[in-house]
Amino acid sequence: MFYTEHQPCPELAQEIECVWFVVDRDRCSVRAPERVLPDGCLEWIFHLGTPFQYCQADGRWKTQATSFFVGELTRFLLLQPSETIATMGVRFRPASAYRFLPLSLHVLSDDSVSTQDIWGAEGRELEERVLSADCDEQRKSLVESFLIRSREKSQLRPRVEVAVNEILRSRGQLRVEQLAEKVGWSRRQIEREFRSGVGVSPKVLARIIRFQNLLRLVGESELREWADVALAVGYADQPHMVREFREFSGQSPTAGTAEFGDLSRHFVNPHRLALMLGKDG
Question: I need a surface site. Which of 208, 243, 272, 277 has the fewest CB within 10 A?
Protein backbone atom coordinates (compact mmCIF):
# COMPACT_ATOMS: atom_id res chain seq x y z
CA MET A 1 0.00 0.00 0.00
CA PHE A 2 1.62 3.24 -1.19
CA TYR A 3 0.62 6.35 0.79
CA THR A 4 1.66 9.92 -0.01
CA GLU A 5 0.80 13.33 1.42
CA HIS A 6 0.85 16.63 -0.46
CA GLN A 7 0.78 20.15 0.92
CA PRO A 8 -2.28 22.20 -0.08
CA CYS A 9 -1.97 25.26 -2.29
CA PRO A 10 -0.95 28.43 -0.39
CA GLU A 11 -4.50 29.82 -0.53
CA LEU A 12 -5.76 26.86 1.56
CA ALA A 13 -2.78 26.24 3.83
CA GLN A 14 -4.58 27.65 6.88
CA GLU A 15 -7.55 25.32 6.52
CA ILE A 16 -6.17 22.10 5.03
CA GLU A 17 -3.57 19.88 6.65
CA CYS A 18 -2.82 17.84 3.55
CA VAL A 19 -4.18 16.09 0.48
CA TRP A 20 -3.32 12.40 0.59
CA PHE A 21 -3.40 9.53 -1.86
CA VAL A 22 -3.21 5.81 -1.24
CA VAL A 23 -2.92 3.21 -3.97
CA ASP A 24 -2.49 -0.55 -4.09
CA ARG A 25 -3.48 -2.04 -7.40
CA ASP A 26 -2.33 -5.55 -6.54
CA ARG A 27 -5.58 -7.44 -6.27
CA CYS A 28 -6.05 -8.92 -2.84
CA SER A 29 -9.22 -10.83 -2.04
CA VAL A 30 -8.67 -10.62 1.73
CA ARG A 31 -7.50 -7.41 3.38
CA ALA A 32 -7.36 -6.63 7.08
CA PRO A 33 -9.89 -4.03 8.26
CA GLU A 34 -8.70 -0.46 8.85
CA ARG A 35 -9.43 1.19 12.19
CA VAL A 36 -9.95 4.96 11.81
CA LEU A 37 -9.78 6.90 15.09
CA PRO A 38 -11.33 10.22 16.14
CA ASP A 39 -8.83 13.07 15.69
CA GLY A 40 -10.83 16.29 15.45
CA CYS A 41 -10.36 16.57 11.69
CA LEU A 42 -12.95 16.23 8.94
CA GLU A 43 -12.03 14.38 5.74
CA TRP A 44 -13.26 14.60 2.16
CA ILE A 45 -12.80 11.23 0.45
CA PHE A 46 -12.78 10.32 -3.24
CA HIS A 47 -12.63 6.63 -4.14
CA LEU A 48 -10.85 6.59 -7.48
CA GLY A 49 -11.11 2.80 -7.45
CA THR A 50 -13.64 0.53 -5.79
CA PRO A 51 -15.23 2.12 -2.68
CA PHE A 52 -14.52 0.64 0.74
CA GLN A 53 -17.13 -0.80 3.05
CA TYR A 54 -17.72 0.42 6.60
CA CYS A 55 -19.22 -1.25 9.65
CA GLN A 56 -22.48 0.33 10.79
CA ALA A 57 -23.60 0.63 14.40
CA ASP A 58 -25.74 -2.51 14.00
CA GLY A 59 -22.72 -4.51 12.84
CA ARG A 60 -23.74 -4.71 9.20
CA TRP A 61 -21.34 -3.64 6.46
CA LYS A 62 -22.30 -0.99 3.91
CA THR A 63 -20.49 0.29 0.81
CA GLN A 64 -19.26 3.87 0.96
CA ALA A 65 -20.23 6.46 -1.63
CA THR A 66 -17.81 7.28 -4.43
CA SER A 67 -17.02 10.63 -2.77
CA PHE A 68 -18.20 11.99 0.57
CA PHE A 69 -17.44 14.10 3.63
CA VAL A 70 -16.74 12.34 6.92
CA GLY A 71 -17.76 14.36 9.97
CA GLU A 72 -16.25 14.45 13.44
CA LEU A 73 -15.87 10.93 14.81
CA THR A 74 -16.57 10.26 18.46
CA ARG A 75 -15.81 6.54 18.16
CA PHE A 76 -13.57 4.41 15.99
CA LEU A 77 -14.69 3.47 12.49
CA LEU A 78 -13.96 0.08 10.93
CA LEU A 79 -13.33 0.07 7.19
CA GLN A 80 -12.97 -2.89 4.87
CA PRO A 81 -10.73 -1.93 1.92
CA SER A 82 -11.63 -3.14 -1.56
CA GLU A 83 -9.62 -5.66 -3.57
CA THR A 84 -7.79 -2.86 -5.38
CA ILE A 85 -7.24 0.48 -3.66
CA ALA A 86 -7.04 3.97 -5.18
CA THR A 87 -8.28 6.70 -2.86
CA MET A 88 -7.78 10.45 -2.40
CA GLY A 89 -8.42 12.31 0.84
CA VAL A 90 -8.52 15.98 1.85
CA ARG A 91 -7.84 16.42 5.56
CA PHE A 92 -9.11 19.65 7.11
CA ARG A 93 -7.53 21.22 10.15
CA PRO A 94 -9.68 21.32 13.31
CA ALA A 95 -12.41 24.01 13.12
CA SER A 96 -11.74 24.74 9.43
CA ALA A 97 -14.17 22.60 7.42
CA TYR A 98 -17.16 24.79 8.29
CA ARG A 99 -15.74 27.46 5.97
CA PHE A 100 -16.52 25.32 2.95
CA LEU A 101 -19.72 23.46 3.80
CA PRO A 102 -23.27 24.83 3.35
CA LEU A 103 -24.62 22.96 6.39
CA SER A 104 -24.37 22.72 10.14
CA LEU A 105 -21.59 20.29 10.98
CA HIS A 106 -23.53 18.41 13.66
CA VAL A 107 -25.39 16.55 10.87
CA LEU A 108 -22.07 14.98 9.85
CA SER A 109 -20.97 13.77 13.29
CA ASP A 110 -20.22 10.03 13.26
CA ASP A 111 -21.63 9.98 9.75
CA SER A 112 -20.85 10.83 6.15
CA VAL A 113 -22.66 12.71 3.39
CA SER A 114 -21.99 12.30 -0.31
CA THR A 115 -20.52 15.16 -2.31
CA GLN A 116 -23.64 15.25 -4.46
CA ASP A 117 -25.96 15.47 -1.45
CA ILE A 118 -24.00 18.45 -0.15
CA TRP A 119 -23.59 20.44 -3.37
CA GLY A 120 -26.13 18.91 -5.77
CA ALA A 121 -25.33 19.05 -9.48
CA GLU A 122 -22.21 21.09 -8.81
CA GLY A 123 -20.89 18.39 -6.51
CA ARG A 124 -21.76 15.62 -8.97
CA GLU A 125 -19.90 17.44 -11.74
CA LEU A 126 -16.82 17.86 -9.54
CA GLU A 127 -16.85 14.16 -8.64
CA GLU A 128 -17.00 13.19 -12.31
CA ARG A 129 -14.15 15.54 -13.20
CA VAL A 130 -11.97 14.24 -10.35
CA LEU A 131 -12.57 10.60 -11.35
CA SER A 132 -11.79 11.26 -15.01
CA ALA A 133 -8.71 13.45 -14.37
CA ASP A 134 -5.43 12.39 -15.95
CA CYS A 135 -3.28 12.52 -12.81
CA ASP A 136 -3.35 13.11 -9.06
CA GLU A 137 -1.99 16.64 -9.39
CA GLN A 138 -4.92 17.53 -11.61
CA ARG A 139 -7.35 15.97 -9.13
CA LYS A 140 -5.81 17.98 -6.31
CA SER A 141 -6.08 21.18 -8.33
CA LEU A 142 -9.74 20.55 -9.19
CA VAL A 143 -10.70 20.03 -5.56
CA GLU A 144 -8.70 23.01 -4.33
CA SER A 145 -10.27 25.33 -6.90
CA PHE A 146 -13.72 24.10 -5.84
CA LEU A 147 -12.93 24.74 -2.17
CA ILE A 148 -11.64 28.25 -2.83
CA ARG A 149 -14.90 29.10 -4.59
CA SER A 150 -16.96 27.51 -1.80
CA ARG A 151 -15.10 29.47 0.87
CA GLU A 152 -16.21 32.77 -0.66
CA LYS A 153 -19.79 32.01 0.42
CA SER A 154 -19.01 31.30 4.08
CA GLN A 155 -19.07 33.46 7.17
CA LEU A 156 -16.13 33.26 9.55
CA ARG A 157 -16.54 32.03 13.12
CA PRO A 158 -13.43 33.57 14.70
CA ARG A 159 -14.39 32.80 18.31
CA VAL A 160 -15.00 29.14 17.46
CA GLU A 161 -11.55 28.99 15.89
CA VAL A 162 -9.97 30.69 18.90
CA ALA A 163 -11.73 28.22 21.20
CA VAL A 164 -10.55 25.20 19.22
CA ASN A 165 -6.99 26.55 19.17
CA GLU A 166 -7.18 26.86 22.97
CA ILE A 167 -8.24 23.20 23.17
CA LEU A 168 -5.30 22.23 20.97
CA ARG A 169 -2.88 24.41 22.92
CA SER A 170 -3.94 22.86 26.22
CA ARG A 171 -3.87 19.35 24.73
CA GLY A 172 -7.54 18.95 25.66
CA GLN A 173 -7.05 19.76 29.35
CA LEU A 174 -8.98 23.06 29.42
CA ARG A 175 -12.36 22.89 31.13
CA VAL A 176 -15.44 24.08 29.23
CA GLU A 177 -16.08 26.86 31.75
CA GLN A 178 -12.53 28.15 31.32
CA LEU A 179 -12.85 27.94 27.56
CA ALA A 180 -16.14 29.86 27.50
CA GLU A 181 -14.64 32.58 29.66
CA LYS A 182 -11.62 32.94 27.36
CA VAL A 183 -13.79 33.59 24.30
CA GLY A 184 -16.50 35.60 26.08
CA TRP A 185 -19.40 33.17 25.72
CA SER A 186 -21.74 31.50 28.15
CA ARG A 187 -21.60 27.72 28.37
CA ARG A 188 -24.84 27.50 26.40
CA GLN A 189 -23.48 29.76 23.65
CA ILE A 190 -20.25 27.82 23.23
CA GLU A 191 -22.12 24.51 23.11
CA ARG A 192 -24.41 25.90 20.39
CA GLU A 193 -21.58 27.38 18.33
CA PHE A 194 -19.51 24.18 18.53
CA ARG A 195 -22.50 22.10 17.44
CA SER A 196 -22.81 24.14 14.26
CA GLY A 197 -19.19 25.04 13.49
CA VAL A 198 -17.35 21.93 14.76
CA GLY A 199 -19.94 19.17 14.97
CA VAL A 200 -19.35 18.07 18.56
CA SER A 201 -19.40 19.78 21.95
CA PRO A 202 -16.24 21.43 23.30
CA LYS A 203 -16.02 18.74 25.98
CA VAL A 204 -16.07 15.94 23.41
CA LEU A 205 -13.50 17.68 21.22
CA ALA A 206 -11.26 18.18 24.25
CA ARG A 207 -11.47 14.46 25.05
CA ILE A 208 -10.55 13.62 21.45
CA ILE A 209 -7.56 15.97 21.49
CA ARG A 210 -6.39 14.57 24.83
CA PHE A 211 -6.63 11.07 23.31
CA GLN A 212 -4.61 12.20 20.28
CA ASN A 213 -1.94 13.60 22.56
CA LEU A 214 -1.83 10.21 24.28
CA LEU A 215 -1.37 8.53 20.90
CA ARG A 216 1.48 10.91 20.18
CA LEU A 217 3.25 9.99 23.40
CA VAL A 218 2.65 6.27 22.84
CA GLY A 219 4.10 6.55 19.34
CA GLU A 220 7.17 8.47 20.42
CA SER A 221 8.48 5.98 22.98
CA GLU A 222 8.22 2.29 23.72
CA LEU A 223 9.47 2.68 27.29
CA ARG A 224 6.90 4.24 29.62
CA GLU A 225 5.20 4.03 32.96
CA TRP A 226 1.51 4.01 32.11
CA ALA A 227 0.42 5.66 35.35
CA ASP A 228 2.83 8.54 34.72
CA VAL A 229 1.67 8.90 31.11
CA ALA A 230 -1.96 9.00 32.21
CA LEU A 231 -1.33 11.84 34.65
CA ALA A 232 0.87 13.75 32.20
CA VAL A 233 -1.84 13.67 29.53
CA GLY A 234 -4.54 14.78 31.95
CA TYR A 235 -6.40 11.64 32.99
CA ALA A 236 -7.42 11.14 36.60
CA ASP A 237 -5.55 7.84 36.75
CA GLN A 238 -4.46 4.87 34.64
CA PRO A 239 -7.89 3.13 34.61
CA HIS A 240 -9.45 6.39 33.35
CA MET A 241 -6.89 6.48 30.52
CA VAL A 242 -7.55 2.86 29.59
CA ARG A 243 -11.32 3.42 29.49
CA GLU A 244 -10.95 6.45 27.22
CA PHE A 245 -8.47 4.63 24.96
CA ARG A 246 -10.82 1.67 24.59
CA GLU A 247 -13.81 3.93 23.89
CA PHE A 248 -12.05 5.81 21.11
CA SER A 249 -10.05 2.95 19.58
CA GLY A 250 -11.69 -0.30 20.67
CA GLN A 251 -8.28 -1.50 21.85
CA SER A 252 -5.94 -1.38 24.83
CA PRO A 253 -3.14 1.24 25.00
CA THR A 254 -0.64 -1.62 24.92
CA ALA A 255 -1.71 -2.54 21.38
CA GLY A 256 0.69 -1.19 18.79
CA THR A 257 -0.38 1.32 16.15
CA ALA A 258 0.26 -1.37 13.53
CA GLU A 259 -2.96 -2.95 14.78
CA PHE A 260 -4.92 -0.01 13.36
CA GLY A 261 -4.17 -0.97 9.74
CA ASP A 262 -1.75 -0.23 6.89
CA LEU A 263 -3.51 3.04 6.03
CA SER A 264 -4.66 4.15 9.47
CA ARG A 265 -1.19 3.93 11.00
CA HIS A 266 -0.20 6.95 8.87
CA PHE A 267 -2.94 8.97 10.56
CA VAL A 268 -1.51 8.32 14.05
CA ASN A 269 2.09 9.02 13.11
CA PRO A 270 3.52 10.95 16.11
CA HIS A 271 5.13 13.56 13.85
CA ARG A 272 1.79 14.24 12.19
CA LEU A 273 0.05 14.49 15.58
CA ALA A 274 2.69 16.87 16.94
CA LEU A 275 2.13 19.18 13.97
CA MET A 276 -1.65 19.01 14.36
CA LEU A 277 -1.51 19.79 18.07
CA GLY A 278 0.96 22.63 17.57
CA LYS A 279 3.02 24.23 20.29
CA ASP A 280 1.62 23.86 23.78
CA GLY A 281 1.23 26.68 26.25
Answer: 243
Picking from 93, 91, 132, 128, the residue whose alpha carbon sits closest to that of residue 6 is: 91
The C-alpha R_g of the chain, in whole angstroms, comes to 19
Instruction: Give the CA-trace dihedral at 20, 100, 43, 112, to 10 degrees.
Output: -140
Q: Structure pTM? A: 0.94
Which residues lie across from 55 on neighbouring strands?
61
**Pairing outcome for strands 16-24 and 77-80:** unpaired
Question: Distance between CA 45 and CA 86 in Å, rounded?
Answer: 11
Sequence letter at residue 76: F
What is the number of other CB atoms lying within 10 angstroms of the CB of residue 184?
10
CA dist 208 and 229 (Å) reads: 16
pLDDT digits (tens, 9 = 90+) for 105-151: 999 999 999 999 999 999 999 999 999 999 999 999 999 999 999 99
